[in-house]
Design goal:
Layout (H helix, E strand, L loop, with lengths): L22 H31 L1 H12 L29 H16 L1
Helix pairs in contact: 1-2
């Protein structure tokens, strides 16, 4: 026996539209934005001091901040699958036993 209105249907068709945040999320984001706006000036001052006192830690923080303003590297193939380009491998063999083992492995890989 099925419960509810069924797949793809809702009991409240006039409810919150898809993709819109709920009220609590909107309120929390507004409060966080207010805090960040108020602290921006102080963060800049602290970063200036940190640059002089501890350059390594400054660069670490700077790198993390950059990730929020620079675009991420993305795959641009049409099917979103990474392109696999086989690279030749040159192996120097020091014994005939090793050569035979490598040949078997190579032949087994070609069979797959």
């Amino acid at each position: 026996m099925a419960r509810g209105p069924g797949k793809g249907k809702t009991n409240n068709p006039n409810g919150r539209p898809k993709g819109i945040s709920n009220k609590a999320t909107i309120e929390v984001r507004e409060k966080i934005k207010t805090i960040i706006d108020a602290e921006t000036e102080f963060v800049s001052e602290v970063l200036k001091d940190l640059r002089q006192d501890n350059p390594v830690q400054y660069l670490t923080i700077y790198e993390k901040l950059l990730s929020y303003v620079t675009p991420k590297k993305r795959d641009i193939t049409s099917d979103d699958k990474p392109i696999s380009i086989p690279q030749p491998i040159n192996i120097t063999v020091d014994s005939s036993e090793t050569a035979e083992t490598l040949k078997k492995l190579r032949d087994g890989a070609k069979a797959d």
